[in-house]
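ARCHIVE CARD
CATEGORY: sequence design from structure
SOURCE FIELD: tokenized fold
FIELD CONTENT:
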């Protein structure tokens, strides 16, 4: 059976989660739990604030319910390896970034199915709702997110020196792989899993998607600073909240909901969010007094 682009998305996510597992260091994470305020705040902002922003922004648009739901799906997919990569590049708080990714990888086993049901009900997408089975959804998320992390941790425990050497190359390779996969999804024919997105849809989605992205990124940074989280951790939290896991959103739209229409906002957000987040992180990092 020929593989579609959705199959490659699943493979890419599994490789990314494996790479995250190989980067885990017990000492770094023990240090994080000694001062857990940033962790808890980051989780709350990712799992609660961002979906709320997506719902509010979408309500002021004339987009179809499917496209509004697509934006909401991106908002319930916490940042992954790409946000870790940006934190690494700009020398933000990489350990905090990876910790949030790992914890979210477990939490979304619960939050994604629940929030999907909520969103589908809000937008009255009962035809899609019928395809969502909670148990099957959790199993698919487990197989693609959690199992690869544990494999990575196991590999790191057995080959720590090799894991250290491949940590950065794995991040680079997986980021490039995601870019290639998104390119095929964006431009590919619908017969191989392409989205079939039209220029007018891209233009209609740009405004709402950029709004959700910037409001969540700037808002989370300001909230973190108001909560007395230090500047470096606040920048890291803003990266994690602002740069959502669009690859996971695509996986949910294809593997769980079997809908190309729902995947279109994720593709539009992927066009700019990496670069805008990188610029935000660089400017914040280099023009802050610590």
């Amino acid at each position: 059976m020929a593989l579609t682009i959705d199959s490659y998305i699943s493979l890419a996510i599994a490789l990314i989660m494996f790479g995250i597992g190989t980067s885990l260091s017990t000492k770094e994470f023990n240090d994080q739990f000694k001062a857990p305020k940033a962790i808890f705040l980051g989780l709350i902002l990712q799992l609660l604030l961002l979906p709320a922003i997506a719902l509010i922004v979408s309500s002021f648009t004339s987009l179809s319910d499917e496209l509004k739901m697509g934006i909401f799906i991106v908002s319930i997919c916490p940042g992954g390896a790409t946000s870790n990569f940006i934190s690494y590049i700009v020398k933000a708080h990489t350990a905090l970034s990876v910790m949030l990714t790992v914890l979210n990888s477990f939490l979304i086993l619960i939050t994604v199915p629940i929030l999907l049901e909520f969103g589908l009900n809000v937008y009255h997408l009962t035809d899609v709702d019928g395809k969502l089975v909670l148990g099957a959804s959790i199993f698919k998320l487990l197989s693609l997110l959690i199992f690869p992390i544990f494999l990575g941790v196991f590999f790191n425990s057995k080959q720590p020196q090799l894991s250290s050497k491949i940590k950065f190359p794995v991040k680079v390779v997986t980021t490039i792989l995601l870019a290639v996969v998104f390119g095929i999804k964006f431009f590919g024919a619908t017969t191989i899993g392409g989205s079939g997105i039209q220029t007018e849809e891209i233009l209609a989605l740009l405004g709402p998607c950029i709004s959700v992205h910037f409001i969540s990124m700037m808002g989370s940074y300001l909230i973190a600073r108001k909560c007395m989280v230090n500047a470096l951790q606040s920048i890291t939290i803003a990266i994690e909240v602002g740069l959502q896991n669009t690859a996971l959103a695509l996986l949910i739209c294809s593997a769980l909901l079997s809908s190309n229409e729902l995947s279109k906002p994720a593709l539009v957000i992927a066009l700019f969010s990496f670069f805008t987040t990188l610029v935000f992180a660089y400017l914040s990092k280099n023009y802050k007094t610590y």
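CARD ANNOTATION: The mean pLDDT is 81. The radius of gyration is 18 Å.
SHELF: design records, drawer C
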